[in-house]
Structures are given as C-alpha cells and as structure tokens.
C-alpha cells in the first residue's frame, strides 16, 4: 500500500520536483515504496511537455518551471491541493489511460462529498463542473511515467487566488475559466479535502 504523506506549509517547487523524481527512480530500483504526497506550493507557473510559450501571458509574474509532465501551462499556489502520485504501474496493469481515468474518478468522488457535481469530459483531461458563468475546470491532471513508475499528478482548487490563473492560458483552454470550492460558495479546509481524497483514493 502506498505511503500517504501530507506536507505542512508551502513546499518549494524545485525541491519538491527533485525529491519526487528521485523517489520515482528509487521505486523502480526497488529501494522505496509507493508514495502519494500532498503539498501546497508558493505561486508558480509550470510548463508541461506540450506548453506553448504564447500561452504564458505574464512570464515575469511568478517563477516559471519546465517540467516533464504531460500537458501545457498550469498554476500552483496557496489554497490549491497538489497531489504527487509515485506509483508502480508495472504492478498496477500498465494502463496509462486507465490510470488517468482513475485519477479523474477519484477527484470527482472527493468533490461529491462537498456537494459538487463534477465530471470528466472526453477530449479534455481534468475535472469540470458547472458554475453560474458556465462550465469551469476545478481539477487538473498532468502525469509522467518513466519505466512504468508514475510521478507528477493532480491539482485541486480548494481556495486559491483564481486571479493568479490570468497569467497563463490554463492547460491551453482559453475558452474555459477555472473555479474552486471557495468560488462555488463551499467552505472547506484543506484538511477536509485531504480527508475526502484519502477516503476515496483508489490506490490505497
């Protein structure tokens, strides 16, 4: 069973990235067990392997990191739960698409605990819900697999400053806004969200 680790405070992005990559390598080497690592970061923009620099609208606003995960630009910051999933997919079926769908279903189930009706949408990775202004993204997913060990993972908007997303085109989808539990009028602490995530985690 994976270790479930919740980091207190704000975790430096570069240090977290290095630790995550090392842990994934250690799993494949048989020197470490699987890990689900929940963190919050200071404000950063991160670029996935499909990122288009034209979608970085405010490059000087926050630090920008290139990462090896899939996807385009995203934002991480306080009030957003980021989950890093270091799992041995060789032992879990070698099904990358099935893995991503499992993460989507996981976030949807956790959000349902707060009365949020969320869904996956064909052709758009992530988790979506309806708002008075229309459809919006509440959870992002970006994973990488190396030698059938996963790393990176998901982000779920609990109560981040949504204006910070204006410095990028989130996930390359200019036509869709982002939302959060707080923006939907739901008061939930990070501990509340963590409990729901742990309750519904399909990997434990």
TrEMBL record:
Q: Which reaction does it catalyse?
A: octanoyl-[ACP] + L-lysyl-[protein] = N(6)-octanoyl-L-lysyl-[protein] + holo-[ACP] + H(+)
**More about this protein:** In the reaction, the free carboxyl group of octanoic acid is attached via an amide linkage to the epsilon-amino group of a specific lysine residue of lipoyl domains of lipoate-dependent enzymes.
Q: Pathway it acts in?
A: Protein modification; protein lipoylation via endogenous pathway; protein N(6)-(lipoyl)lysine from octanoyl-[acyl-carrier-protein]: step 1/2
Q: Does the keyword GTP-binding apply?
A: no
Which one Pfam family would you cite for this protein? Answer: LplA-B_cat
| Keyword Transferase attributed | yes
Matching entries from PANTHER family are given as:
LIPOYLTRANSFERASE 2, MITOCHONDRIAL-RELATED (PTHR10993:SF7), OCTANOYLTRANSFERASE (PTHR10993)
Q: This chain belongs to which protein, by name?
A: Octanoyltransferase
Q: Where is this protein found?
A: Cytoplasm
Q: Which residues form the BPL/LPL catalytic domain?
A: 30-204
Which SUPFAM superfamilies does the UniProt entry name for this protein? Class II aaRS and biotin synthetases
Which keywords does this Swiss-Prot/TrEMBL entry list? Acyltransferase, Cytoplasm, Transferase
Q: Give the Enzyme Commission number.
A: 2.3.1.181
| Protein family per UniProt | Belongs to the LipB family.
| One GO MF term attached to the UniProt entry | lipoyl(octanoyl) transferase activity
For substrate, which residues are the binding ones?
A: 69-76, 140-142, 153-155
The free-text function statement in the UniProt record for this protein reads:
Catalyzes the transfer of endogenously produced octanoic acid from octanoyl-acyl-carrier-protein onto the lipoyl domains of lipoate-dependent enzymes. Lipoyl-ACP can also act as a substrate although octanoyl-ACP is likely to be the physiological substrate.
Q: Which gene encodes it?
A: lipB
Catalytic residues, per the record, are: 171 (acyl-thioester intermediate)
Which parts of the sequence are marked as the site Lowers pKa of active site Cys?
137
């Amino acid at each position: 069973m994976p270790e479930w680790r919740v980091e207190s405070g704000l975790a430096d992005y570069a240090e977290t990235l290095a630790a995550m990559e090392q842990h994934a390598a250690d799993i494949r080497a048989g020197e470490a067990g699987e890990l689900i690592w929940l963190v919050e970061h200071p404000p950063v923009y991160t670029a996935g392997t499909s990122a288009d620099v034209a979608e970085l609208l405010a490059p000087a606003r926050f630090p920008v990191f290139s990462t090896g995960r899939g996807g385009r630009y995203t934002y991480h910051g306080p009030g957003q739960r980021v989950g890093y999933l270091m799992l041995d997919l060789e032992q879990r079926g070698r099904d990358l698409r099935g893995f991503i769908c499992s993460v989507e279903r996981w976030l949807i189930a956790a959000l349902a605990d707060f009365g949020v009706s969320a869904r996956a949408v064909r052709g758009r990775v992530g988790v979506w819900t309806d708002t008075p202004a229309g459809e919006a993204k509440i959870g992002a997913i970006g994973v990488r697999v190396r030698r059938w060990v996963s790393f990176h993972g998901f982000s779920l908007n609990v109560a981040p400053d949504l204006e910070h997303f204006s410095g990028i085109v989130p996930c390359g989808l200019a036509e869709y806004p982002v939302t959060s539990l707080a923006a939907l009028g739901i008061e939930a602490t990070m501990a509340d969200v963590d409990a729901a995530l742990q309750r519904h985690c399909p990997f434990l």
